[in-house]
Fold:
Amino acid sequence: RKEVEQDPGPFNVPEGATVAFNCTYSNSASQSFFWYRQDCRKEPKLLMSVYSSGNEDGRFTAQLNRASQYISLLIRDSKLSDSATYLCVVSRGGYQKVTFGTGTKLQVIP
Amino acid sequence: DAMVIQNPRYQVTQFGKPVTLSCSQTLNHNVMYWYQQKSSQAPKLLFHYYDKDFNNEADTPDNFQSRRPNTSFCFLDIRSPGLGDAAMYLCATSSSGSYNEQFFGPGTRLTVL
Structure:
């Protein structure tokens, strides 16, 4: 089993739709969780950190479920500019090794 | 603006010809990472430095070496590039701490002929 697993997609959604991605992780000692966004042929950029209590930033909501060992990302009112690959990142904490998921590709369609 | 810079952005080399990729940062972060990312795959950690302490991933080939002469700079040396080493190489930095994000440079795209 992979340490971090994501559905690769692609998720093709119309503008204005709500879309959700899940990411499961296998190491129960994982402490830090992030969602990164990566545009085609560009570097990953931090979208959100994921806190135990969940967090929201505008149209984006991230949640952590430690019992079931997954994190989620919800995007409301999808924009064309949201089209990208969303990478789930899990860390055992501090500077220790982080593990990337293979990413979920989102395509928002006009 | 504080940032992570990688040079060159595009590198073409011949099979077996050594190549060096560079990364510099103005964030004053004490941790620096090198990742390899191939098309449609997750970034794969090659190694990281915590200050001057070098940490090699177990499955990183010996063909890949790294140097960190000071806090700001880190180099990736590929001693004998093979066709399978063609990829995007990403440098990232982070501060040590319990809940820290990584900041990525724009990457160097390596082509091996």
